[in-house]
Amino acid sequence: MNTRHLVDPALLPALDAFPALAATHETLPAVRAAMDGITRSLAAAPVPVAPQEVRIPAPEGHEVRALLLRPADDAGPLPAVLHIHGGAYIIGTPEMSVPELSETARQLGVAILSVDYRLAPEHPFPAGIEDCYTALGWLHANAAALGVDPVRIAVMGESAGGGLAAALALMARDRGEYPLAFQLLDAPMMDDRTCIRPRNPATGEFIFGPDDNRFGWSCLLGGEPGQGDVSPYAAAARATRLEGLPPALIAVGALDLFLDENVDYAMRLIAAGVAVELHVYPGCPHGYVIAADAPVSQRALRDKREALRRALAR
């Protein structure tokens, strides 16, 4: 089904200019190199809150790199956000999100820690989620030194980062060590079974399609997605018990491949007694925020920041 006529017209120039991911094991190094080039160009722009690199010792013996953004002129204790970047579990770094995160930190007066988690396929599940949990533990353990309020810590992520954010909320609940006040899931990549289900014909034509989804999940899981028992810490939608999770905002485009899995997860959270704010943006495929100046992208960004502001208020 051709869905171009359904796309918000303000998004079309950016969609036409954005290259298809089309990653394979052979092309993945080139895809990562291209993403690194985009990230370096973003990093050259001035930002209102400069990131500070931190290295966090992990129980497995390696270090987890992260970027800390803390407004210098805000007295503590501040609320904090653990941010997890997107990239289909196979590409990306925290630097790609710094411009938006920096402005969020300034506007909301929050500290943000963005995690450079290990990527698949070199590091399949559970490497990435364990790195995120390590970063959450560091944020709690160093709350006093950082001027952070440990009872006002949220997790947020987009795409694969949103899937990791949802999985981290499950892991934090189950392990009972580090409480989370809120989860912001932006078009989360959270259900490997989408790879084998009949496709919603209105979704998945732009930016990130079914082949991209299957490749990302196969790298993370080390095998064919949609098969057998998969841990909910890998694919949060696999969780059968959702009670006791923190309140959530779930945002997704109406043309996004992840639409059905995201809406289903929102409805299941609501049925489990979890407060959920759900936004479905018409005319928007996955990654529509690359058209940063489009009215719908600006509206979505305001919605997400306002949800964080409310959730982390004293």
CATH class: Alpha Beta
Can you give the helix content as a percent range? Answer: 25-40%
Count of individual helical segments: 9
What is the SS-derived class? Answer: alpha/beta
Which regions contain 5 or more consecutive residues with pLDDT less than 50?
none
> Which H/E pattern describes the elements?
HHEEEHEHHEHEHEHEH
Instruction: Count up the domains.
Output: 1
Query: What is the first-to-last residue Cα distance?
Result: 48 Å
Major sheet: 8 strands, mixed
- CA gyration radius, whole angstroms: 18 Å
InterPro entries: AB_hydrolase_3, AB_hydrolase_fold, GDXG_lipolytic_enzyme
Pfam family, one: Abhydrolase_3
GO molecular function, one term: hydrolase activity
Protein name: Acetyl esterase/lipase
Description of the molecule:
With 314 residues, the protein is of the alpha/beta class. 35% of the residues lie in helices and 17% in strands. It has helices spanning 12-17, 28-43, 98-108, 127-141, 143-146, 160-175, 210-221, 259-271, 295-311, and strands at 52-57, 63-69, 78-84, 111-116, 148-158, 182-186, 248-253, 276-281. The chain has an eight-stranded mixed sheet with strand order 1-2-4-3-5-6-7-8, sandwiched between helices. Helix 4 crosses helix 6 (160-175). The chain is globular and about 55 Å long. The mean pLDDT is 95. This is Acetyl esterase/lipase.
